[in-house]
């Protein structure tokens, strides 16, 4: 049976900010991991991204993101659900809050021509703008 190294826990996010819901499993099981919100399959998008660890990154949170989240590992002949965790979306208070990295890129090796995902998710107010650099050269959007 699959085992969870970490599971989602109840959390809050301010409107327009970012949050990560944990769901870490063995790397060979990540391709068999998916997310549910309110016990319905969650459709991933540019705002809702499953990270290489299996965690769910929520960017630019809206009121529609509030709900009960859980991840599911479906392996040959067996499946296992994580604990459910409530995500609350709070109104923005306008008060400054310090920048905090929720997820940072980690070193990775890929074959030439292969795709790579380098996650970087930051929270704070005013909502931070993330820019990418290679060495000391800014990457264009």
From TrEMBL:
Coiled coil: none annotated. Keywords: Cell membrane, Disulfide bond, Glycoprotein, Immunoglobulin domain, Membrane, Repeat, Signal. PROSITE patterns: IG_LIKE. The keyword Disulfide bond applies. Pfam families: I-set. Signal peptide: none annotated. SMART domains: IG (SM00409), IGc2 (SM00408). GO terms for cellular component: plasma membrane. Residues 2-88, 91-141 form the Ig-like domain. It is found in: Cell membrane. InterPro entries: Ig-like_dom, Ig-like_dom_sf, Ig-like_fold, Ig_I-set, Ig_sub, Ig_sub2. One of its GO terms (biological process) is cell-cell adhesion. This is Ig-like domain-containing protein. The lineage of its organism: Eukaryota, Metazoa, Chordata, Craniata, Vertebrata.
């Amino acid at each position: 049976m699959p085992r969870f190294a970490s599971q989602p826990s109840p959390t809050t996010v301010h409107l327009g900010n970012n949050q990560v819901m944990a769901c870490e499993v063995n790397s060979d099981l990540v391709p068999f991991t998916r997310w549910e919100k309110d016990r319905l399959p969650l459709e991933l998008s540019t705002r809702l991204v499953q990270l290489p660890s299996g965690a769910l990154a929520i960017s630019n949170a809206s009121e529609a993101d509030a709900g009960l989240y859980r991840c599911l590992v479906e392996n040959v002949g067996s499946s296992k659900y994580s604990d459910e965790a409530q995500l609350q979306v709070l109104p923005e208070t306008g008060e400054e809050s310090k920048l905090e990295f929720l997820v940072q890129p980690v070193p990775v090796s890929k074959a030439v021509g292969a795709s790579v995902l380098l996650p970087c998710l930051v929270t704070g107010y005013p909502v931070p703008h993330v820019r990418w650099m290679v060495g000391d050269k800014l990457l264009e959007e």
